[in-house]
UniProtKB/TrEMBL annotation:
Residue stretches making up the Galactosyltransferase C-terminal domain: 234-311
Keywords: Disulfide bond, Glycoprotein, Glycosyltransferase, Golgi apparatus, Manganese, Membrane, Metal-binding, Signal-anchor, Transferase, Transmembrane, Transmembrane helix
Comp. bias (Basic and acidic residues): 309-318
Localization annotation: Golgi apparatus membrane
UniProt record similarity statement: Belongs to the glycosyltransferase 7 family.
GO MF annotation list: beta-N-acetylglucosaminylglycopeptide beta-1,4-galactosyltransferase activity; cytoskeletal protein binding; metal ion binding; N-acetyllactosamine synthase activity
BP GO terms, sorted: carbohydrate metabolic process; protein N-linked glycosylation
Membrane topology: Single-pass type II membrane protein
Protein name: Beta-1,4-galactosyltransferase
Pfam families found in the cross-reference section: Glyco_transf_7C, Glyco_transf_7N
Organism: Leptobrachium leishanense (Leishan spiny toad)
Amino acid sequence: MQRGSLIPAPALPGTSLQKACKFLVAFCALHLCVTLVYYVSGGELSIFQYFMEHQQHQYRGPVGKSASLNRFQSALSAQGNATPTEESKPKGELPMCPETSPLLVGPLRIEFTISVSLEEMRQSNTEVREGGRYTPKDCTALQKVALIIPFRNRDQHLKYWLYYLHPILQRQQLDYGVYVINQDGENTFNRAKLLNIGYAEALKEYDYQCFVFSDVDLIPMDDRNIYKCYSQPRHLSVSMDKFGFGLPYNQYFGGVSALSKEQFQRINGFPNNYWGWGGEDDDIYNRISSRGMSISRPDGVTGKCRMIRHDRDDKNDPNPKSSELPFDCGDGHTIPRR
Ligand SMILES: [Mn+2]
């Protein structure tokens, strides 16, 4: 008797299990292949990324008058991505820099015996742009600060200033620009007039809100002495080595000072008629106090700074206006003025 002709052969008990196993093996193989392709040729992923980035780049046109529109479109295109790249974020989205920069290191060793070269400085400050400009990358600076340096024939001092100050100002997370205002010719020096010129010229270039006026030969010894503006005009060089790390007299406002745009306008800028060395800083002090403002200062430790020793420059003799009064040391003593 033929078994099969009468009753259709019943499916073997293992058949459906076999099918399931085959399917499972096929699925595993496929999965393995996909996984292999994914890991072995990492290029697949980067091609995907290329398309994502390329799409974003299309919306980022040249920076110009339509920059804000481009940024707006870029923001729109970025909405589709779960994680927009840092680059595609419009600048306005950067968080504000913290009140106290986490990059500060405190006391600094400042010396003027080492040799410094402009080329080395350029290489170690790659983030500083043409024109001595710097803007923090990861956050929006709390202030836009113009540093104004009155200048003539002090190349070596300027090198030290740039060598020390650029790293400090970057650690202070300021959006800053450095302006060296050179007095042409050999006539009598006029520091305050150069500072006024620096204020006006810097404002032509950028929307600065704060102006730090610094002598070229003064270097802070602590990066917590922030070169920014405060609610009152700020005197920064409060503890100079030249004066035994103290103030020569209480009203002293020379060296390095900071005024906001409003504070500067309120005192109608600095006097233009102080020719020669000294006096203009006291005039500025009087302008400030006569407008009802007071002087803000860092403490004597944070405010320590070094002055590069030098002889009196030619054509910068003491201004007769400045030599009439002796210093009031604030402790009952007076010393001859400077
Ligand atoms: Mn000096």
